[in-house]
Design a protein that fits this description.
The chain is mostly beta strands and 321 residues long. Helices cover 11% and strands 35% of the residues. The chain folds into 2 domains: 236 residues, Acetamidase/Formamidase-like domains (Jelly Rolls), CATH 2.60.120.580; 84 residues, Endonuclease I-creI. It has 3 helices and 21 strands. Strands 1-4-17-6-15-18-19-21-20 form a 9-stranded mixed beta sheet. It has a 6-stranded mixed beta sheet with strand order 3-5-16-11-14-13, with no helix packed on it. The protein is globular and about 55 Å long. The two termini are 34 Å apart. 42% of the residues are buried.
Length: 321
């Protein structure tokens, strides 16, 4: 199986000028070994998020959030849609979350001075599960609080049309740093293609994350990710889509949050109308009345240029699928 090693997975931009590291056929599985968002800087609680101490933070924007790629997909052309099947994510032995002065929405808090007056790094240990791997493992937040490892890919996409977008704050219809917990094993991601070969990248795996990723970092970890890519020829997409076994999700990123929610909902309606044969009237009324319709607020971080990321989700049972 072809693989991008961790040492190779040190790109910090989605750049159409990059030479592909792999060339794969549609339907071929391959692996990418990813760094955590800090490229391995955070190992113990004594490793603080002080910018002057972090390699790459003298650049603007910082060289953080490394990604592996690009991967060239044979036969991919501008105007196609790339289908990404996430087959496996195995995380490392630990994850981290870092807070401190001027980091996140409470980085200047006077209500809780400990959040803004000092840097704090929490290391969350991972324990293997019954399989002997982290695939069914547990995260140990502290002596009393644990939960299952629920990994997903935080940064995923293809090279944008004309611009070069950084992996730390680049976002768009082509993907980017979106931190969507549903970019997970067993789900299929849809992305529009802008260049020959698609030029696919991924990185920034999280072992788990709460909705909005409120502090600006989740449970950041290294991982090995296995994916398979397919193509739909010459089909237009407005933004990322996700197919889960039992539901479909339309994604949008924007500010303010209500614009992301409104656009994701309208794009979901278009999906229902165009591909499931629903009338515009029924689609409009359904999202307003169905108790199973959900808005997921995946990322709502008040940091840098990041937009807010929303997903409009509807179970397949209401689509006749």
């Amino acid at each position: 199986m072809q693989r991008i090693t961790r040492e190779q997975a040190r790109k910090f931009a989605f750049d159409w000028r990059d030479e592909p590291l792999l060339c794969v056929q549609p339907g071929e599985s391959f692996e990418i070994e990813t760094w955590d968002a800090s490229s391995g800087f955070f190992k113990t609680p004594s490793d603080k998020a002080i910018p002057a101490n972090r390699p790459g933070f003298d650049s603007h924007p910082p060289l953080a959030n490394p990604i592996g790629g690009p991967v060239y997909i044979e036969g991919a052309e501008r105007g196609d849609v790339l289908l990404i099947d996430i087959e496996d994510i195995e995380v490392g032995d630990y994850s981290w979350v870092a807070i401190g002065p001027k980091r996140g929405p409470l980085g200047e808090s006077t209500r809780w001075p400990e959040l803004s007056g000092e840097y704090t790094t929490k290391i969350i240990q991972h324990t293997p599960g019954p399989s002997g791997t982290m695939r069914d493992g547990t995260m140990q937040f502290n002596d009393k609080i644990t939960w299952p490892i629920t990994p997903f890919i935080g940064t995923i996409g293809v090279a944008p049309d004309r611009e070069v977008a950084t992996s730390i704050d680049g976002q768009g219809m082509w993907g980017g740093n979106l931190d969507i917990r549903d970019v997970a094993v067993g789900n299929r991601i849809h992305l529009p293609v802008f260049h020959e070969g698609a030029l696919f990248y991924l990185g920034d795996v999280h072992a788990s994350q709460g909705d909005t990723e409120y502090t600006g970092t989740a449970a950041e970890t290294c991982a090995t990710v296995r994916v398979q890519l397919e193509l739909v020829k010459q089909k237009r997409l407005p933004f990322m889509r996700i197919e889960k076994p039992d539901s479909i999700i339309s994604i949008h990123a924007s500010r303010p949050l209500e614009l992301a929610v409104d656009t994701a909902t309208q794009n979901l309606m278009a999906w229902m109308i165009d591909e499931y044969g629903m009338s515009p009237t029924d689609a409009y009324c359904l999202v307003s009345t169905c108790p199973d319709f959900r808005i997921n607020v995946y990322q709502m971080v008040n940091m840098g240029k990041l937009s807010f990321v929303a997903g409009a989700e509807l179970p397949r049972k209401h689509l006749g699928a």
